[in-house]
UniProtKB/TrEMBL annotation:
Residues 18-135, 143-228 form the Ig-like domain. It holds the Pfam family C2-set_3. GO terms for cellular component: external side of plasma membrane. InterPro entries: B30.2/SPRY (IPR001870), B30.2/SPRY_sf (IPR043136), BTN3A2-like_Ig-C (IPR053896), Butyrophylin_SPRY (IPR003879), ConA-like_dom_sf (IPR013320), Ig-like_dom (IPR007110), Ig-like_dom_sf (IPR036179), Ig-like_fold (IPR013783). One of its GO terms (biological process) is T cell activation. This is Butyrophilin subfamily 1 member A1-like. Residues 1-19 form the signal peptide. Belongs to the SKINT family. Belongs to the immunoglobulin superfamily. BTN/MOG family. Keywords: Disulfide bond, Glycoprotein, Immunoglobulin domain, Membrane, Signal, Transmembrane, Transmembrane helix. It is found in: Membrane. It is a single-pass type I membrane protein. It comes from Onychostoma macrolepis.
Amino acid sequence: MSSIIIAFLLNLLVESSESFTVVVPGDPVVAHVGSSVILPCWISPPENAEALEIRWYRHDFNNPVLLYNHGKIQDTQEESYRNRTSLSLRSDQSGGLKDGDVSLRLEKLSVQDEGPFRCYVSGESSYDSEDVVLKIMALGSTPVLFPKPLDDGRVNISCRSSGWYPEPSVTWTSDDGRVLRPGGSSHSRGADGMFSVHSWTAVSRSDAQLVSCSLSIRTGELKEGRLNIQGIMPSDASSGPWKALFFTLLISALLGLVGFMLYKHREKLTGKKPAEENCEEGTMEKLTKAVVEDMTMEELRRHAVEISIDRERLHPDLTVSKDCKIMRDGPGYNHTDEGFPYELCAFGAQRFTSGRHYWEVDLVRSPNPPKHYWLIGVVKEGSSASKHRSALTPSAGFWFLCSDGPHGFHTNTDQSIILSLNPRPERLGVLLDYDDGQLSFYNVTERKHLLTISSRFSGSVVPLFGPGAGDQSPITILDCPEPVESAAESSQPLLSNNSSDA
Ligand SMILES: *[C@@H]1O[C@H](CO)[C@@H](O)[C@H](O)[C@H]1NC(C)=O
Ligand SMILES: *[C@@H]1O[C@H](CO)[C@@H](O)[C@H](O)[C@H]1NC(C)=O
């Protein structure tokens, strides 16, 4: 028996030495969740591989990731790889299959794709195979910081972020560069294999002005959230749950320069550079990407819900289209006094009591210019609209972003955040994260995060729309398109601007 095997092996050795070997890169191939990757594999010396069998597989030879023989790709395939694989060129210079290049292209990567892929090539008289190792990573959401004043005068800051792979490390620092000890951290893993992180630290106000929570993975890519703790009221000043609104500024640094300075700063702090980075230019590019990348449009739209206007609870001076999607100030409305017509508002017919929900509105109808006056947000069911801005607070069940013509953009949080948004948004995305108490706004056209209001929701909340008065364009609620499948689209990040916790 053993002599047969030896004879067989010898036979192979002899034959393969006069035919081909399979060659793959020595290092693992690294790619991000959701993106596409090419796993290089080729035969040497080069020969036409069109007549060979090419089998890419993981655990089961008979249930391959991709099988090519008799001159074409076969249907036999592991179900989870269906429609995600193809044979590809390992570089622009490659001559392809004719030249012995049997590289595999894999799309829509998930955490489950991590690990070795066997590249097996077989001809008439010989075969060979090698493993290509794929490492997956996912850069999570920009950390959101939330302060809670403690009785002893310190502030308990919590930092949350999700969508990481592998498990990220958390670093707390103060603005003067000191590393702050975390009070505690916990990680959890979702069904998709990705990690969520929650960390907290208690800081005294005299200790720091800006506190930063930064999450990073082994490539050196990181996401950072920062919080100014000086404006936070001591706990006795915050009597009701809604009074405890804190102005905080979470800077997801937009500028590469800022990111770069942070990076240099970290480097000084830790005394060493993260592995793999010795070219400053490359580093800067990577870090810029890390700092500005946020949820993609596709991730947002995964939470898309269909919204329509509730006709029963409509201000009589509003005009709404038949399909309950388009609204504007009615012809009879006479807006005389100064200031935004807050009472002129419409409510969505959909109620939310948990989870994440996303919708988009158009604020322009060509050829008219983008609207100057609008108000978009959510409202607690049962709250009634008012003429007076002072009555529309989070404690009264209102959370919104308002565009008030020449007066700019502002939130209704107790410490109002005034923004200048340039250009004026044409299409606005709204993400309600009920459980995490966040309402985020996005400029969809520019794929940019505008700001996040943090609060706590209770009961049912419904979408809120105010079309203002006097604009030519109406507000149009869009039926959100399904997430776009193309790799080019999904790899394009949203830019983050800034966020505020209230
Ligand atoms: C693969 O694509 C075909 C045709 O486009 C489609 O009918 C099928 O449902 C897809 N399969 C999977 C698993 O996505
Ligand atoms: C700080 O807040 C976290 C929750 O975010 C909590 O688990 C922790 O016990 C708090 N720490 C202190 C000292 O209150």
